[in-house]
Amino acid sequence: MAESAFEDLDTIVDNEEREELVKRVLELQGQLKGMINKVDTARNEHQSLLKENQLLQKYINNSLTSTAVFGATNGAVNSNNISLRQTDASSPH
């Protein structure tokens, strides 16, 4: 009879340990789900920013191309303006 009491005690301890382990596993699973959601959110934000950066780069390249085609405006200095100014300064008036 004493042996069965010890066996019952072992079973109770095993069940308590098992319950604690199950609780810990469920807690860790919840944390993992939270981390996965954060990673997914960061990945989506990264993709969005990457697309936005590509769009801005195209806009900048198109702006630079159109400026080169139509010439600099609003007092912007380009190589032609510099050479003209140097020629004007060196010529006697």
TrEMBL record:
<dbReference type="InterPro" id="IPR019357">
    <property type="entry name" value="SCOC"/>
</dbReference>
<feature type="coiled-coil region">
    <location>
        <begin position="18"/>
        <end position="52"/>
    </location>
</feature>
<dbReference type="GO" id="GO:0000139">
    <property type="term" value="C:Golgi membrane"/>
</dbReference>
<keyword id="KW-0333">Golgi apparatus</keyword>
<protein>
    <submittedName>
        <fullName>Uncharacterized protein</fullName>
    </submittedName>
</protein>
<dbReference type="Pfam" id="PF10224">
    <property type="entry name" value="DUF2205"/>
</dbReference>
<comment type="similarity">
    <text>Belongs to the SCOC family.</text>
</comment>
<keyword id="KW-0472">Membrane</keyword>
<keyword id="KW-0963">Cytoplasm</keyword>
<comment type="function">
    <text>Positive regulator of amino acid starvation-induced autophagy.</text>
</comment>
<dbReference type="GO" id="GO:0005829">
    <property type="term" value="C:cytosol"/>
</dbReference>
<keyword id="KW-0175">Coiled coil</keyword>
<dbReference type="GO" id="GO:0005802">
    <property type="term" value="C:trans-Golgi network"/>
</dbReference>
